[in-house]
Amino acid sequence: MSKVEVAHLAPEKYSSGETGRGPIAEAHEYCCQMFNHLVNAAHRSELFQSDEMLLSQLIDELDRYQLWAGNVGAGHQKYTLSLDCRLEEASFYKDQVRKLILSLKTRTKRVN
Q: Which 3 state secondary structure label does DSSP give 43?
Protein backbone atom coordinates (compact mmCIF):
# COMPACT_ATOMS: atom_id res chain seq x y z
CA MET A 1 0.00 0.00 0.00
CA SER A 2 1.41 3.38 -0.90
CA LYS A 3 1.34 6.07 1.73
CA VAL A 4 -1.04 8.94 1.10
CA GLU A 5 0.68 12.29 1.28
CA VAL A 6 -1.16 14.50 3.74
CA ALA A 7 0.04 17.99 4.48
CA HIS A 8 0.76 18.50 8.15
CA LEU A 9 -1.80 20.91 9.51
CA ALA A 10 -1.29 22.07 13.04
CA PRO A 11 -4.67 22.43 14.74
CA GLU A 12 -5.63 26.05 15.11
CA LYS A 13 -8.00 27.43 17.67
CA TYR A 14 -11.62 27.28 16.52
CA SER A 15 -13.18 30.70 16.75
CA SER A 16 -16.55 31.29 15.18
CA GLY A 17 -17.12 34.38 13.13
CA GLU A 18 -13.56 35.66 12.83
CA THR A 19 -12.95 34.46 9.27
CA GLY A 20 -16.15 35.69 7.67
CA ARG A 21 -17.17 32.10 7.02
CA GLY A 22 -20.34 30.58 8.38
CA PRO A 23 -20.29 28.43 11.53
CA ILE A 24 -20.65 25.17 9.59
CA ALA A 25 -17.84 26.05 7.19
CA GLU A 26 -15.55 26.99 10.08
CA ALA A 27 -16.41 23.80 11.99
CA HIS A 28 -15.75 21.79 8.81
CA GLU A 29 -12.38 23.46 8.25
CA TYR A 30 -11.30 22.76 11.82
CA CYS A 31 -12.56 19.18 11.63
CA CYS A 32 -10.48 18.62 8.48
CA GLN A 33 -7.43 19.98 10.28
CA MET A 34 -7.98 17.54 13.15
CA PHE A 35 -8.49 14.64 10.74
CA ASN A 36 -5.31 15.53 8.84
CA HIS A 37 -3.41 15.86 12.10
CA LEU A 38 -4.68 12.41 13.12
CA VAL A 39 -3.66 10.84 9.78
CA ASN A 40 -0.19 12.40 10.04
CA ALA A 41 0.18 11.10 13.60
CA ALA A 42 -0.95 7.66 12.42
CA HIS A 43 1.74 7.66 9.73
CA ARG A 44 4.33 8.14 12.48
CA SER A 45 2.73 5.64 14.90
CA GLU A 46 4.19 2.15 15.27
CA LEU A 47 0.69 0.71 15.73
CA PHE A 48 -0.53 2.05 12.39
CA GLN A 49 2.74 1.22 10.59
CA SER A 50 2.41 -2.41 11.67
CA ASP A 51 -1.26 -2.55 10.61
CA GLU A 52 -1.70 -1.06 7.15
CA MET A 53 -5.38 -2.03 7.17
CA LEU A 54 -5.99 0.23 10.18
CA LEU A 55 -4.26 3.17 8.47
CA SER A 56 -6.21 2.49 5.29
CA GLN A 57 -9.49 2.54 7.24
CA LEU A 58 -8.58 5.86 8.84
CA ILE A 59 -7.79 7.40 5.46
CA ASP A 60 -11.06 5.97 4.09
CA GLU A 61 -12.98 7.71 6.90
CA LEU A 62 -11.28 11.01 6.08
CA ASP A 63 -12.18 10.53 2.41
CA ARG A 64 -15.82 9.73 3.30
CA TYR A 65 -16.09 12.80 5.48
CA GLN A 66 -14.59 15.05 2.80
CA LEU A 67 -16.90 13.57 0.16
CA TRP A 68 -19.97 14.12 2.37
CA ALA A 69 -18.88 17.66 3.25
CA GLY A 70 -18.27 18.49 -0.39
CA ASN A 71 -21.63 17.08 -1.47
CA VAL A 72 -23.63 19.04 1.11
CA GLY A 73 -21.59 22.23 0.80
CA ALA A 74 -20.17 22.24 4.33
CA GLY A 75 -16.86 23.73 3.23
CA HIS A 76 -18.15 26.35 0.81
CA GLN A 77 -17.74 30.03 1.52
CA LYS A 78 -20.86 32.05 2.34
CA TYR A 79 -22.83 31.96 -0.89
CA THR A 80 -25.81 30.05 -2.25
CA LEU A 81 -24.01 26.68 -2.46
CA SER A 82 -22.85 26.74 1.14
CA LEU A 83 -24.65 24.65 3.70
CA ASP A 84 -24.65 27.69 5.99
CA CYS A 85 -26.62 29.65 3.40
CA ARG A 86 -28.98 26.81 2.52
CA LEU A 87 -29.84 26.24 6.19
CA GLU A 88 -30.18 29.92 6.99
CA GLU A 89 -33.93 29.60 7.56
CA ALA A 90 -33.59 26.30 9.45
CA SER A 91 -31.54 27.24 12.50
CA PHE A 92 -32.29 23.97 14.31
CA TYR A 93 -30.79 21.86 11.51
CA LYS A 94 -27.92 24.28 11.06
CA ASP A 95 -27.06 23.96 14.76
CA GLN A 96 -27.38 20.17 14.61
CA VAL A 97 -25.02 19.86 11.63
CA ARG A 98 -22.51 22.18 13.28
CA LYS A 99 -22.71 20.18 16.53
CA LEU A 100 -22.16 16.89 14.68
CA ILE A 101 -19.11 18.25 12.88
CA LEU A 102 -17.69 19.68 16.11
CA SER A 103 -18.35 16.34 17.83
CA LEU A 104 -16.34 14.59 15.12
CA LYS A 105 -13.60 17.19 15.54
CA THR A 106 -13.55 16.61 19.30
CA ARG A 107 -13.28 12.85 18.86
CA THR A 108 -10.42 13.14 16.35
CA LYS A 109 -8.67 15.61 18.65
CA ARG A 110 -9.07 13.24 21.62
CA VAL A 111 -7.42 10.42 19.65
CA ASN A 112 -4.51 12.70 18.70
A: helix
pLDDT at residue 16 tops 80: no
The four Cα atoms 85, 87, 91, 95 give a dihedral, to 10 degrees, of: -90
In the DSSP assignment, the letter for residue 89 is T
Q: Say what the pTM is.
A: 0.66
Domain that includes residue 56, residue range: 23-111
Nearest in space to 62 (alpha carbons), one of 81, 36, 99: 36
Q: Where are the alpha helices (DSSP H) in the chain?
A: 23-44, 46-50, 52-72, 83-86, 91-111
Asked whether residue 83 is assigned to any structural domain, the reply reads: yes
List, for residues 31-89, the tens digit of each pLDDT value.
Answer: 888 888 888 888 888 777 777 788 888 889 899 999 998 888 887 765 777 888 888 88
Query: Total domain count for the chain?
Result: 1
Fill in the amino acid letter for 46: E
